[in-house]
Automatic annotation (TrEMBL):
Its EC number is 3.6.3.-. Keywords: ATP-binding, Hydrolase, Nucleotide-binding, Sugar transport, Transport. Belongs to the ABC transporter superfamily. Residues 4-234 form the ABC transporter domain. One of its GO terms (molecular function) is ATP binding. It is an enzyme of class 3 (hydrolase). This is Multiple sugar transport system ATP-binding protein. Signal peptide: none annotated. The chain holds residues 1 to 238 of 332 of the full protein.
């Protein structure tokens, strides 16, 4: 289970209205990608879903339970950031284990989950290393592994490929797609890259200046963009 409902979410920073009323239903197991230009509010929306930021008004529901005021650890989510957000002084293994330890997960269960996740992401050779001893691609796989071991209902990705070079970007994208196929987990993924959106998404949500311009399957947006903004962004030739 891992459905997500966003009801009329608004967010202002001081006088600036960053999100101007977002409504969205994400089905259990769906891969939804938020696209839009830099500064349109993608990260803010993701952080509100994660509980890292409070909405000014509106509600967030996960599996039909209102989590608007619940702390991140109580939402059954795991987030992967553009900058990996690993602890530099901890080994890969300890980075992956930390959240589970804090949640009181028994050691045997932690070991089992780390073994499974590191196999899935080919991380076994790196478990004893520290982040500084890894490449960018390896660091991002560790960050994905850390999300995986928590067995979240809902994965949130904020531009996870932006700091990787072109070849690694393709590989990591394929790994994320595979992960989605294997786990059947709900994934909400933010990017400003049209190719990522077109290849990963069941549905794409096009954001512009704090509003949703259009929601639909990739080919739906490509063939029938609701307006010029969507057409320009998704790259339809009309
Ligand atoms: P995106 O991820 O789409 O690039 P963001 O959600 O990061 O956009 O930011 C949307 C807007 O909100 C930007 O104008 C940004 O400057 C502003 N913003 C984001 N976080 C804060 C904050 N903590 N305080 C003030 N303004 C913020
Ligand atoms: Mg952002």
């Amino acid at each position: 289970m891992g459905s997500l409902k966003i009801e009329n979410v608004k967010k202002s920073f001081g006088p600036v209205d960053v999100l101007k009323g977002i409504d969205l239903d994400v089905k259990d197991g769906e891969f939804v990608v938020f696209v839009g230009p830099s500064g349109c509010g993608k990260s803010t929306l993701l952080r509100i879903i994660a509980g890292l930021e409070d909405a000014t008004s509106g509600n967030v529901l996960i599996d039909d339970a209102r989590v608007t005021n619940a702390p991140p650890s109580k939402r059954g989510i795991a987030m992967v950031f553009q900058t990996y957000a690993l602890y530099p002084h901890l080994t890969v293994r300890d980075n992956m284990a930390l959240g589970l330890k804090q949640a009181g997960t028994p050691t045997a269960e932690i070991d089992k989950r780390i073994a499974a996740s590191s196999a899935m992401l080919s991380l076994e050779p790196y478990l004893k290393r520290r982040p500084a001893e890894l490449s960018g691609g390896q660091r991002q796989r560790v960050a994905i592994g850390r999300a995986l071991v928590r067995e979240p209902k809902l994965f949130l990705f904020d531009e996870p490929l932006s700091n990787l070079d072109a070849a690694l970007r393709v590989n990591t994208r394929l790994e994320i797609a595979q992960l989605h196929n294997r786990l059947k987990a709900t994934m909400v993924y933010v990017t400003h890259d049209q190719v990522e959106a077109m290849t990963l998404a069941d549905r794409i949500v096009v954001l512009n200046a704090g509003r949703i311009e259009q929601v639909g399957a990739p080919m739906e947006l490509y063939n029938k963009p609701a307006n010029l903004f969507v057409a320009g962004f998704i790259g339809s030739p009309k």
